[in-house]
Each structure stands twice: as structure tokens, then as C-alpha cells.
Amino acid sequence: MFCIIANTLWAMFGSIWRYFVAKKSVSGEIVLITGAAQGIGREMALLYASEGATVVCVDIQEESNRKTARMISDLGYGKAHAYTCDVSDYAKVMDMCQEVERTVGNVTILVNNAGIAFVNRLCAMSKEEIERNICVNALSHFWMIKAILPSMLKNNYGHIVAVGSMSSFGGVPLLIPYSVSKYAIQGLMESLRKELALYENCQIKTTLAHPLFADTEMVRKANANLPSILPRTHQKDVATSIMNAQRNEMVEVTIPGHYLALRCLIR
């Protein structure tokens, strides 16, 4: 019990300290964000661009994704790049990332944010809905990391961010495939962090962010069925918290932040 309390307090104080220290600059970084066409992804694209980063917007929704890039240019943050890609498709991800490296440069910050959710009872979900949920929310992280990590290892520099969910703390009814995919992201990022430590003096960082439920279109649809257990957080606040966590090189963060203690207790 003493160890649990000590670890919890250590995590809480560590998070508070990292939150208030000077944040690492992202000016000049090349930031690739999946799911940039709307919601948290768009907000993060605008935030990183405002801090001087070159932003690569990736989404399957071509026009909305291009709109995000145009918004960055119109605000005077510099030129952003938009790439249309189904991130659940391994071959398309590899082709897209090669094109990004050729035309923009080596990605130094990868933000795996793309996600979808189908709200229904498990037995009422189709095979295609379940597969799509797992492929977009979980497998895309594998494909993007496999495409980007080699250049990071070569340069011994980079940061990989994953947008998980607090639904991975405990199962959520009517969102079973979504919740399962977020459990997978948690396992992937924890394992990846430990594997990177096997490389000598590895300078590649990882951050796993667990939002509660942001006020996005996807969550609004879920909230219609589960209003009591899905309180919303404004998507811009979520995006800001994720970017700050990356800039402060935090390994794990919850949004709202006080849920990190719950995470530690569960572990």
C-alpha cells in the first residue's frame, strides 16, 4: 500500500512540475498529425503551426484536411502540407510517408491522432464496423510508426505522440471496439518506450495522452446514448494539453490531469 501511495504522489508531483517548467520549443520541427481534418487533430495542427513548426496534415477526408492547411496559411503561421491518406492501409501509409520525406523532410514529431467510433451494442455491430474501428484506431499507429521511426533512429532524434483515451482505464459499454483499440494503443506505447530504451543513448521520446472525452462530433454522437458517463472537454483544451505534454516530454498524461492519480492507482 505504501508503494502504491508513494508512486501515485510521485507521478502527481512530477506531472505538476513538468507542467510549469519551460516548455521545449517546437519551432523548426516537422510535425505530422493524423486525423487533422477536424476536431483535436485540426486544433493541434493550428497550435503547432502557431509555435513555428512545419505541419503535415494527414487525413482521409481530402477537402477538410486541405481546409486545415489553408487555415494555417491564412493565419500567417506559414505553409502547411496536406496529404490524403487512409492511415489504416499499410501500403498507402508507406507511400505517403516516403512522399513527405521527399518533399517536406524527415518528420521529427509524429502525432497519431486519427480515430473513429461506432456506438452500438456489440452484437448489433457489423463485422466491417468492428474491423474498421480496430484498423483506424490501433493498426494505423503501427503503420505510421514503422514508416517514420527508421529516420528518427537514424538521426537519434524525434518524438512519437499517441492519442489514447481514458476508456482504456476500464471498458465502456456501447463502445467496445473503440475501448479495445485504446487498450491496444496503451500497450503499444508502453512497449515501444521500453524497446527504445534498448538502443544506446536513444534520444527519441514518447508521449501517451489519455483524454476523457473531447467535445468532438464523434463523442457528441456517443453522448446522445451515454450522457451520464461521457462528460466533455473542449477539443482546443485537449489539443493544448497534448501539445504541452509533448513539449514537456511527459511520458503519460490524462486530460483532465488529475485523473493521472487514478491511472496510477489502477496500475
Automatic annotation (TrEMBL):
Q: Which PROSITE patterns match?
A: ADH_SHORT
InterPro entries in alphabetical order: NAD(P)-bd_dom_sf, Sc_DH/Rdtase_CS, SDR_fam
Subcellular location(s) of the protein: Membrane
| SUPFAM superfamilies assigned to the protein according to its UniProt record, in alphabetical order | NAD(P)-binding Rossmann-fold domains (SSF51735)
Keyword entries, A-Z:
Lipid metabolism, Membrane, NADP, Oxidoreductase, Signal, Transmembrane, Transmembrane helix
Give the signal sequence positions.
1-22
Q: Does the keyword Iron-sulfur apply?
A: no
Name any one GO molecular function.
Answer: all-trans-retinol dehydrogenase (NADP+) activity
The UniProt entry lists the main location of this chain as membrane
GO CC, sorted alphabetically, is: lipid droplet; membrane
Q: Which domain of life is it from?
A: Eukaryota
Topology relative to the lipid bilayer, per the entry, is:
Multi-pass membrane protein
Pfam families recorded: adh_short
Task: State the function annotated in the UniProt record.
Answer: Catalyzes the reduction of all-trans-retinal to all-trans-retinol in the presence of NADPH.
Of which family is this protein a member?
Belongs to the short-chain dehydrogenases/reductases (SDR) family.
Q: Which PANTHER family match?
A: PKSB, RETINOL DEHYDROGENASE 10
Output this protein's name.
Answer: Short-chain dehydrogenase/reductase 3
